[in-house]
Amino acid sequence: MCWSVPGKILDIKENIATVEISGLKKDVGLDIIDDPKVGEYVIVHAGYAIQKVDEESANFTIDFFKGKHNNA
Amino acid sequence: MSKITLAHGSGGTLTQELIESVFFKFLGNKFLSKNDDSAILPGEAANIAFTTDSFVIKPFFFPGGDIGKLSICGTVNDLAVNGATPKYISCGFILEEGLDIEDLRKIVESMAHCAKVAGVDIVCGDTKVVEKNGVDSIFINTSGIGVLRDGVHLSVDNISVGDKVIVTGNLGDHGIAVLSKRKGLEFESESISDCAPLNHMLKTLTDSVEGVKFMRDATRGGVATTLNEIVKHKDFGIMIEEEKVPVLDSVRSACELLGLDPLYIANEGKALIIIDKKCEAKALEILGSNEYGRNAASIGEITQDNQDMVCLRTPLGATRVLGLLSADPIPRIC
Amino acid sequence: MLKFIDEYRDKGLCADIAEKIKAISKKRLKIMEVCGGHTMAIRKNGIHKLIGDNIKLISGPGCPVCVTSIEDIDLVLALSRIESVVICTFGDLFNVPGTGSVTLDKQRAEGADIRIVYSVKDVIEFAKAERKKKFVFISIGFETTAPTVAAAIVQADRDGLDNFYILPLNKTMPRALKAILEDSRTDIDGLICPGHVSTIAGTDMYNFIVDKLRIPCCVTGFEPSDILTSIYILTELAETSQAKLVNAYKRAVRAQGNEKALRIMEKVFKPSDAKWRGLGNIPESGLMLKDEYSRFDALNTFNIEKVVSMSEKECICGDILRGAKVPSDCKLFKDICTPSDPRGACMVSSEGSCAAAHRYGD
User: Fold this and answer.
1) Is residue C50 helix, strand or coil?
2) Mind telling me how many Å the CA of A58 is from chain B's nearest CA?
3) What is the distance between the alpha carbons of residues B121 and B125, in angstroms, rounded to a whole number?
4) Considering the domain B36-148, what is its CATH architecture?
5) Do A46 and C254 touch (CB under 8 A)?
6) Tens of pLDDT along C311-360?
7) Cα–Cα distance measured from residue B115 to residue C95, given in angstroms and rounded to the nearest whole number
8) Mean pLDDT, chain C, whole residue set
């Protein structure tokens, strides 16, 4: 039960964020994540943000195989 | 009086007032103004195409269109994809007691505008009013008559291995535009319904290119469903290249949010065209130069292999079956 | 361009990883995934066809719709027949058949008020707007979804809503994973661990698989390059007989999970036994409402008729969910068990193994 999509927080009003996914805007609940900020990306599942996207880890795959290549 | 009441359906003075102030005001033409029980239409020296469709969409105003525009485009397109020039439309309305007359006015005006763009006359109609909850606001039925053009013989029997599959533009716009307004799902989307009359564009195509084998409008169930209808019990298969299927980011993002596949989402202004591969390039040029054919794309071909099946080649090169869904695609979270 | 999605669908990147997998793949290996989202992504992208002949991908019981017992489905259907009750459900459950092939779709045709929702939040909105009706949210899903329901219960409690209820059918992975993987009939060389379940619950639950069962584990995202990378990692570990836990979905998963979500879950829910379709009763694998929130439990509120539940005799979903058999091994597959007339767990949900095999073909 995992279907989720990453989106960018455009606006926060109390406990609701307006999240944008490439032009689409949806209001999502912020009840279950800590300290969300405008401009951050979050994972959206069933109407709630369930985690922030760790942008520093976004290139795991590329870094993983680059690391292999360098270590070879 | 701002709301439809049962009296509007009684046939008496209120009915007459409604007909004059709404239907005739926007739809009036030489046929309707005779106010006869049937429209008498001039004879044609060609085969007649005849079709009917009913429209129950909710919400009945949506980004890019409304139930009225849909009711004209849907019937016009059903005629156009068979190689007929649409000429005459009938419309039957079933109205729920309590419907805002202003909403009805907007819908009928929209129908009139669309009929004008398509170049068809609405020649007869009917209105019934039912008690509250008898129907959901407004249902419309339109039937259409068209004249088959000389030399145009479109049929699934014409299709042969090697033919190309063309779609006339981006897929899924209508379905997502409507979904974005549905209660319980509301989201702000850039998607606008593609609802449009395709008859002029398709006439230009068949006038200019001989190799058009078959056409169908890809409405409910999307392109995937239409392709499955074409291939059923046939001795050929269809292979679609997923990378070539044109889908706007606004549709993709909605599909990502809701767990839907753009290939199964409804369109209301897109035709699927099966064409001889020699004519593919010219067809794309003709379609691309029309306002309703921008982003037309060749997305696949008819194959010897995988008879009776529609297959999809993914961007990664693997192939899978693109089957029929057993029900309407429902947003999922699983 | 869809950010944090399209980058991971890059054709060239995926082709490259697939080649790397084939280059290191020497042993015959079985790799299992336990998330319906992974089942779908693998089938949809044809990943199982890109990794050579030595690696077999197996679907375990990761689809919460598939593993909802027929007794629970019958309970949902019985609830829907109560006047003044409005059933609100995710779309996934709408066509799932209970005993006698009854579905929510069919109940709606009989006059039941059944609404498909995208979020439990929508149910709260309905309840606030239509005070005379009683809204019951059918709460299915794993750890990914449970905190959202917990948050909704906290909100309903705060707002004093008296016409909002849930039917608590959520399940949790750890005990189920134990039951499946410690079963002697299960024989796998690597585990693709759920992505978003891990986002919430963290990665500690997989330690016993690595430490005790000596099976390598890789926490995995849902895009094709995520899954291919995990398959590479697991293949490399299995080929060199190493049992390690790797988090390959760092952009969405922290080792400690989402602590706020876990706190809210713990505030509202407590563990309970749960019956899994195909696997039977697994202790402490379900969630029920704590006493202070029990007034939101539909089971405590409504007088629900008892139904004698009966499932299909020749169904081998249990074996399929354990990874011991595949859909084509089942006599009923495609013959009388199809997506439009599903007879067992694996066909009911669009992402069950049999449904995926039927839809995407082979």
Assistant:
1) coil
2) 19
3) 12
4) 2-Layer Sandwich (3.30)
5) no
6) 777 888 777 776 678 889 999 898 888 877 777 767 876 667 788 788 77
7) 39
8) 91
CA quadruple B262, B266, B267, B270: dihedral sign: positive
Rounded to 5 degrees, what are φ and ψ at B217? -85, 135
C185 touches chain A (CB under 8 A): no
Tell if the CB–CB gap between A24 and B259 is shorter than 8 Å: no
Q: Are C329 and C42 in contact (CB under 8 A)?
A: no
Task: For residues B18-36, give the mean pLDDT.
Answer: 85
Tens of pLDDT, residue by residue over C230-261, are: 999 999 999 999 999 999 999 999 999 999 99
Q: Which two tokens stand for residue A28?
A: 């999502």
Laid out side by side, the sheet with B237-241 consists of B212-217, B271-275, B164-167, B297-303, B237-241, B310-313, B319-321
Give all chains having 3 or more CB-to-CB distances under 8 Å with chain A: B, C
CA distance C107 to C76: 11
Angle formed by the axes of helices C11-24 and A60-71, to 10°? 50
DSSP string across C13-33: HHHHHHHHHHHH--S-EEEEE
Q: Which residues contact B11 (CB under 8 A, 6 or more apart)?
A: none
Domain spans of chain B?
A: 36-148, 156-321
When the pLDDT of each residue in chain A is averaged and rounded to a whole number, the result is 90
Q: Which of C49, C115, C360 sits opposite B184 (nearest CB)?
A: C115
Neighbours of B, requiring at least 3 CB pairs below 8 Å, are A, C
Output the average pLDDT for chain B: 91
Residues 100-159 of C with CB under 8 A from A: 118-122, 140-142, 144-145, 147-148, 150-151, 154-155
Q: Number of CB pairs < 8 Å for A and B?
A: 39
Bridge partner list, C87: C114, C136
Give strand ranges (E) for chain B.
48-55, 61-62, 65-66, 84-96, 121-130, 138-148, 164-167, 212-217, 237-241, 271-275, 297-303, 310-313, 319-321
State the alpha helices, DSSP H only, in chain C. Answer: 11-24, 36-45, 70-80, 104-109, 120-129, 146-158, 173-181, 196-201, 207-211, 224-239, 259-268, 298-301, 317-321, 345-348, 353-360
ipTM of the complex: 0.94
- What is the H or E stretch that residue A7 is in? strand A5-13
Residues near B200 by beta carbon (within 8 Å), at least 6 away in sequence: B118, B119, B290
CA distance B91 to B35: 14
- β-pair type (B65-66, B84-96): unpaired
Chain-chain contact of A22 with B259 (C-beta, under 8 angstroms): no
Q: Among B187, B249, B259, whose Cβ lies nearest the Cβ of A22?
A: B249
Confidence of residue B329 (pLDDT cuts 50, 70, 90): low
Residue B41 reports pLDDT greater than 50: yes
Query: Binning pLDDT at 50, 70 and 90, where does residue A72 land?
Result: very low
Q: Per DSSP, which regions of B5-137 are E strands?
A: 48-55, 61-62, 65-66, 84-96, 121-130
Gap between the Cα atoms of C323 and C61, Å rounded: 9
Percent of chain B with pLDDT over 70: 97
The matching CATH number, chosen from 3.90.650.10, 2.130.10.10, 3.40.50.2020, 3.50.50.60, for B156-321 is: 3.90.650.10
**Smallest CA–CA separation between B266 and chain C, in Å?**
18
pLDDT: which is higher, C361 or B68: B68
Strands (E), B34-192: 48-55, 61-62, 65-66, 84-96, 121-130, 138-148, 164-167
- pLDDT per residue as tens digits for the range C92-116: 888 888 888 888 988 998 889 999 9
Best residue in C8, C45, C137, C229 to probe B by mutation, most B CBs within 10 Å? Answer: C45
**Token pair for residue C83?**
């006047």
Q: Report whether A44 contacts A7 (CB < 8 A).
A: yes
